[in-house]
Amino acid sequence: MRKEFAENGVDVVLDYVWGPPAQATFEAILVKGFDNKSKRIRYIQIGESAGSKIELAASVLRSSGVEVLGSGFGSVELKDIMKAVAEFFTEAAKKPFAMKIDQVPLRDVEAAWARKEEAVRIVFRP
Question: Rounded to two decimals, what is the model's pTM?
Answer without folding.
Answer: 0.64
